[in-house]
Amino acid sequence: MTIQRMDNVAIVVDDLDAAVAFFAELGMDLEGRAQIEGDVADQTVGLDGVRSEIAMMRTPDGHGRLELTKYLAPEASAPTPAIPPPNTLGLHRVMFAVDDIDDTIARLRPHGGELLREVANYENVYRLCYLRGPAGIIVALAEQVG
Questions:
Q1: What counts of helices (H) and strands (E) characterise the chain?
Q2: What is the DSSP-derived secondary structure letter of residue 111?
Q3: Distance CA 72, CA 54 (A)
Q4: What is the average pLDDT value for the chain, to the nearest integer?
Q5: What is the maximum alpha-carbon separation in the chain?
Q6: pLDDT tens digits for range 94-103
Q7: At 91, is the pLDDT very low, low, confident or very high (cuts 50, 70, 90)?
Q8: CB 66 within 8 A of CB 11
Q9: Class of residue 104 by CB neighbours under 10 A (exposed 0-12, middle 13-18, buried 19+)
């Protein structure tokens, strides 16, 4: 048996509205929001007393999704260090293909998007960058050139 598809990537955030605004500015569509709690949530997540609010964001092509999750209970724990470097074990980054990387960066800055360094040119095929988004997640952007 093989997998059917990758359904979504979940990101735990402390400010759900700000995270929704950030990814909406990136071009994702809000598919829906919901409160999640109860025995099924506890069993699935592996915590007791789970109560969370989620927002499902969808890429314009309809194939990619981010589940943004704000834990109301138990309270989310902060990573150490608070802003882990890009080589930290675990979820590294989420990458998006964009039409205009400079415009995308400019639109994300008012929503907390902050470049880690600068836009790089990879063999005159892609312009690439990493930036910090909601809850310190690294968002990578790639613009195909030429």
A1: 3, 9
A2: G
A3: 11
A4: 93
A5: 52
A6: 999 999 999 9
A7: confident
A8: yes
A9: buried
CA distance 135 to 138: 9
All residues at 6 or more sequence positions from 129 whose CB lies less than 8 Å from its CB, including other chains: 101, 105, 115, 116, 117, 118, 119, 120, 140, 141
For residues 38 and 45, give the distance between their C-alpha atoms in angstroms, rounded to a whole number. Answer: 11
State the burial class of residue 136 (Cβ atoms within 10 Å of its Cβ: 0-12, 13-18, 19+): middle
Q: What is the pTM of this model?
A: 0.91
| Chain centroid offset of residue 136 CA | 9
φ, ψ (nearest 5 deg) of residue 134: -55, 140
Q: Are 67 and 10 in contact (CB under 8 A)?
A: yes
| CA–CA dist 93, 86 (Å, integer) | 8
- Region of residue 104 (phi > 0: left; psi between -120 and 50: alpha; otherwise: beta): alpha
